């Protein structure tokens, strides 16, 4: 079991990185994570922020170099690639404004010096949203991207000693061109997952490329892998982080509902287990960070560190830990705020089954197994006040009696109870989710219609509601909708 814990001031010292998305964060050596570039409020960045994990210190190194326009290093950019080889971080491409970049840089992290590299050979075209990974401690492989006109499916290998690029000639069938994917070296293979492809569809396929290790003398070729287990939904802008024998996939965005332009951002964790060679959903004991894409996730020892990202509206700047249950940080995720549970030394249980002095928030959490932050709003709007719910009825609701309004609400609920997941229009998902939350609170606590809560009669039934914490339909994944509808229907049968 893993725990999500938002980092706080006790975890670090120094100057934390500012919010951003489309940046890179790479592990350099055994104790450094180097963050470069990104985008915030339409402003492209070129700063370097470093986390020293040995000293739990964030700092901005004073870099030297001879960059363009009086800069010491690369021009501001986002959606570039960054790969570390020994103490050096290599940067290629990206975007600044509407311009795709094709320049090539190296940062020596021993002396914090930038150098623009003059490479030769088969030079890759300018691009953004490509992905790259190291091959051993000398070479870099880069795949795909977007050059402003077309999606790419080419493969380039860079020798960091000779600075020679080689376009790999691959026999057989190729993956569809794409950008916004991940490309990760696992032993002798490059694994590519997801991305957005030609024409705009978002993909959830997994491909393996062989023939990257000269000593193996293999003919380069792609193989599409169809692994067992809980495969992640199609997405782009996600992260794939190597840790132990697992590859951890987090976040990204895809399309949801029944309209191809409806973006859904994800915050789920899926593991590709390299030992059993299957997908697994990573169990976590508490609510994950807000859904996002174009973030970074790095592995530091047994911990993962999440930073930044974008959810279609906001750019994130907070830091999150994903840790194992025995990690000291994990204790913070289970600590109960003093104002959430009564501090009475002699708690009594009333005849209705509620601990004396216990708030409705705590009661709901205790009985149905959901986590509610003390700042969460547990307000329930009466159906008759929910005008948008009434408007979903097929009949006119203007000037009708309360009895007729009740009949309209029942008509909408019957429609959802008799619907299949694929038949519910996208515009109704938010109303369905709001009614689902309303019915849970009424079902497990009771609600007297005046805005106050009371404990429901009858034996306490332990029921877990997986979507109660979700307030916006845009946070739902496609795979969640059948389960949400099932739980909604069950609320009428118990």
UniProtKB/TrEMBL annotation:
This is Uncharacterized protein. Gene3D superfamilies: Kelch-type beta propeller. Keywords: Kelch repeat, Repeat. Residues 7-18 have a biased composition (Polar residues). InterPro entries: Kelch-typ_b-propeller, Kelch_1, Rab9_kelch_effector. The keyword Repeat applies. Residues 1-23, 331-364 are annotated as: Disordered.
